[in-house]
Amino acid sequence: MARTTPHDRPLTTAQPLYWRVATELLDELRDGTIPPGERLPGERRLAENFGVSRETVRQALEVLRHSGLVATDRRGSHATLSGPPVETATSLTFPIGARATNPGAVDLATVAWEAPPPEHAEALGLAPHCPTLIHRYESAGADGRGRRTAVTSFSAVALAEVAELARYRDRAHDTGSAQLRRAYDWMRRAGLTLHHRDAITRLPGAPSVRVTRRVHDQHARPLEITDLVVDAQQDALVYEFTLPAAG
């Protein structure tokens, strides 16, 4: 007997609440909001997101498990829908300027809970000397050339909305797991639409350029600001843009 999924039946007001939650989760699985293999948020987070009880979430997950769309193991529930993971736009890798994994490169990333630079605090709407999550990234070639350094400050909004970022408050200075390469994916999964603006300036008296990225959400709330310094004499940044076809 063929199994049914939430999309096999039209949605009606007579359908139970858990079926509606299962339908919305299935939409996120199919449009790549939750990529294949990605762990789903916990029951408590899902219940808060959908405004339902945890029991309703459990029933919705059970529907998806029976349909083979979600699997659960000791690490939690994760998506099993076939298809390639959603790619993040090249221009939105975190932090800006981060290199692809290279065995010859020397990369270091750390997090700290401290007061951000004054210009970051102002951009994020933070009171002076108010601590927040700070991410620092350094990269250089095996020969020490092409050095890049980036400092990112996250806003109170980002820490309140994105659970994965908030967890790092208690893990500050944990250099072993501070890459945060999926920060933008976490923001998207939290329901935030990302808008960014990059400004490029040359540093006076030095063969380097500074790239300042500001990211805000669909409500114009600041999420993060990053200052990247690149040794322009030895290195280069490449930006890619895709324009829609005229029509």
UniProtKB/TrEMBL annotation:
Stored CDD domains: WHTH_GntR
Pfam families: GntR
InterPro entries registered for this protein in UniProt: Bact_HTH_transcr_reg (IPR050679), Tscrpt_reg_HTH_GntR (IPR000524), WH-like_DNA-bd_sf (IPR036388), WH_DNA-bd_sf (IPR036390)
Keywords: DNA-binding, Transcription, Transcription regulation
Parts forming coiled coils: none
Protein name as it appears in the record: Winged helix-turn-helix domain-containing protein
PROSITE patterns: HTH_GNTR
Residue ranges of domain HTH gntR-type in the record: 15-84
Superkingdom: Bacteria
